[in-house]
Amino acid sequence: MATVVLPETTRALYPFKSHFLTLSDSKRMHYIDEGPKDGETLVFVHGYPTWSFLYRALVVYYAARGFRCVAMDHIGYGLSDKPPGKNYHSMRQHIHNLLDCLSMLELQDVTLVMQDWGTPLALGYAIRRAANVRRLVIMGSWVFQETLPHRLHPLVKWATTPGLGDLLFNMLGLSVGLWLQTGTTRRLSPLVMAGYKAPFPDSRSRKALIQFPRMISTTLTHPSAPLMIEIERGLDTLQHIPTLIIWGKADPFFTPDIAYHWKALMPHARGPVLLDAGHFLLEDDPEAVIHYLDDFFAATITRPDPE
């Protein structure tokens, strides 16, 4: 797989040293690791159709304040390997990749910051390694199979329609632009849009962009359904972990009522904090996200013992 070379304009917005590790399945995962290695560890887990570029403002801010900031690109995204076949991408595989990554980096006592598809993947990690999780931050996402009906946005329906999805999101490469434009309340600059699109220059690099919407478990017979049920039921095992829910009032993919459903299942959580933003909070109002994260981190300095 050819190495992605980011344009200088993107590197100016994403001024981090690239690191790579080889996972147990031999795929090469890209990650950034900023801030002091002995600092409290924040792990940023991106969703669809972004990459670690999404977290650039948080990484700059928190690394400068003494936190160790780690953000990986899922396989198929960003600067990580992009397997040419579609069969690679499954929810189980990507949870396993995250387990691999954090284990290989020997990260301890981590705060997981997650958005969109990053949430079921990060929580898949958390329910398996709860003793290693200090805090959870949940933004614009879904893990519900049994307690809340699915309501797919039209873009998701298009992406999962055979033929149409491949044409729009693979051959024509429209997924990044359409999702970001639909999921933000302010217009993103051409340089920011170019940064998001840079890792996906051709159809060979876009297999994950086709397959991730198809990983959504719309029925109990879907391959992802058992894992979604496991995670949804596993939320009970995470009740001792400090949790913050942050949401966009104008999120078109996951409306604010879903944030309150999270709260119902995780009543110990702070929030939901509702921002004047869409799905991509870190593009619409990163300063507000940082404000609430600062308060949350300050209030949860000491890691609680499991009940």
Quick overview:
The protein is built from 13 helices and 8 strands. The chain has 307 residues and is α/β, with parallel strands linked by helices.
What this model shows, in words?
By secondary structure, the chain is of the alpha/beta class. It has one domain: Alpha/Beta hydrolase fold, catalytic domain (Rossmann fold, 3-Layer(aba) Sandwich), CATH 3.40.50.1820. The protein has helices at 8-13, 56-64, 91-104, 118-128, 154-160, 164-171, 175-182, 190-197, 207-214, 225-234, 256-265, 281-284, 286-299; strands spanning 19-22, 28-34, 41-45, 68-72, 110-115, 133-139, 243-248, 270-275. An eight-stranded mixed beta sheet has the order 1-2-4-3-5-6-7-8, with helices on both faces. Helix 2 (56-64) links the parallel strand 3 and strand 4 (68-72). Helix 4 (118-128) packs across helix 10 and helix 5 (154-160) crosses helix 6. It is globular, with a radius of gyration of 18 Å. The model has no long low-confidence stretch (mean pLDDT 92).
- Note the beta-strand portion: 5-15%
Number of strands: 8
Shape: globular
Poorly predicted tracts of residues: none
Q: Which value, in Å, is the CA radius of gyration?
A: 18 Å
CATH superfamily: Alpha/Beta hydrolase fold, catalytic domain
Order of helices and strands: HEEEHEHEHEHHHHHHEHEHH
- How confident is the prediction overall: mean pLDDT? 92
End-to-end span in angstroms? 47 Å
Q: Helix/strand-derived class?
A: alpha/beta
* Total number of helices: 13
The CATH architecture name reads 3-Layer(aba) Sandwich
Helicity, in percent? 25-40%
